[in-house]
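Morning F.,

Quick status update on the modeling queue. The single chain you submitted on Monday has been processed. Sequence for confirmation:
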Amino acid sequence: MTQKFKARLTSRWMLERPSGSVVDLSEVIRLLEAVAATGHIAGACKSCGVSYRHGWGLLRNAEKEFEAALLETSRRQGTKLTNFGRHLLWANRRVDARLMPTLESMASELQEELEGLYPESQPRLRLHASHGFAVEGLMQLANGLDILPLELRYRTAIEALASLTHGECDLAGFQVPIGEFESPILDYYSEWLDPDKHRLIHLAVRNTGMFVQPGNPKNITCIADLVNPGVRFVNRQIGSSTRSLVALMLTRLNIDTSRVQGFDSSEFTHMAIAAHIASGMADVGIGVETAAWRCGLAFIPLAKERYFFAVHRDTLNTTRMQRLLDLMRGERYREYISQLVGYDANSMGLVQTMEEAFSPGMLKRKHSASQKVYD
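Structure tokens below.
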């Protein structure tokens, strides 16, 4: 079926006065983003498609509402955001990063439900995966081409693999670090991966490491520095593979997680981690290099991770799955991945058995007790 529409859900900033009246800040946020990018109000108004008078009026009215200046203007340096304005932008970016996976999942679910009302609708490939830039790009490209509609649910790796086992999705995304932590992380997944039933589609290799402020003011160089006095850490959510990797690294150093200030915090995406640090709410977090680069943060490498989609062996030769593989191996998606800092797409679209992907005997079957280490 040719898509008749695309469902989208977005968030909006609103200020409610004591009187009950509401001020919509969506356009103000867009203007502030544009001022930060262009360095002057005229360029910001032009990029947002509004007149200078209208844009200036919106910004001045917002300053009155907040009772705080948002802009600083000088003849030599143009216009820049005040500290209040910068924090407002980072708060917005942090909210967007937190809400985006939920809103995208809900929009995908709504899209499927609406399309199901048409008699000519066709089944969609169901993808469950943790949020990542390569997954995000695949979703956008596939649905944008209108030849391979994907239904997306953002899940932790364990949740995605469990969904695959229960027949609730067609592809389950998960990542495995290369090196000494590969075996224990595979142990973590082993209850849900069956070498006889499942095959792996290689997506990419990505750099994972620590995000810190530019200039690294807290002198953080390794995972052991998370326990240094005054270092505030922001973690991924419970059940995420990144959180499990951090716990493993600390355990190897005989460091109890209770000594890490902020270990019990939870953010759901790499961008949310980066925005948290860029806004000054934490000093260090862990995620993929792309997020650090996009938020202007310094990056300290810790590991390389291979990202896979697990699929049932019997679905590989279906038309829908072959179209997905063709797309993954195609020039447009490869070009997209090549623009992601810290991603390597050399083996993208390669289909492997688990014995081919991992060292012999590394994957243990039905080892559910391993979960106790990470919960």
